[in-house]
Amino acid sequence: MGRKKKERQPVEELFSTAMSMLVPAHILEYFEMWDAQEHMLSELELLRRVRYAITQSPNKWSENMKNTISQVFEKHNDLKTAYQISQNFKHWYDYQNHIKSKEEIKINLYKWYEQARQVT
To answer: Phi-psi region for residue 100, left (φ > 0), alpha (ψ -120 to 50) or beta?
Structure first.
């Protein structure tokens, strides 16, 4: 019996060492995955917060919303470009355009179209 106990001891030590090496790695992997999910959720939360605001003019945004949109635009340059193009179209479509000549309105629309086409 004494011999079996001596033979098991190195195996138990190896098993214990292996588990101590595996468990922290597994826990670390879990926390890295959790951090990635948290980061993804915070990104989605930022986008959720600005989804209606980016349909409005910047003068309708609160200071807090301006900061949030600024964060989103820093991370998503394509969204910023799309927003700028849509705002330029709103400016073209503005009521004040009715005092301009048809030719000037057409030229401005063509400029907007070229700007939008260059992006795509």
So the answer is: beta
> How many other C-beta atoms can be found within 10 angstroms of the C-beta atom of residue 107?
12
Q: Distance between CA atoms of 20 and 26, rounded to whole angstroms?
A: 10
CB-based contact 68:49 (threshold 8 Å): yes
**Inter-residue long-range contacts of 4-10, CB under 8 Å, 24+ positions, other chains counted:** none
Q: What pTM, to 2 d.p., does this model score?
A: 0.60
Length of the chain: 120
Helix (H) or strand (E) holding 23, with range, is helix 2-50
Q: What is the pLDDT of residues 76-116, one digit of tens each?
A: 899 999 999 999 888 888 877 778 888 988 898 899 999 88
In angstroms, the Cα distances linking 73 to 8, 45, 51, 60, 67 are: 62, 14, 12, 17, 10
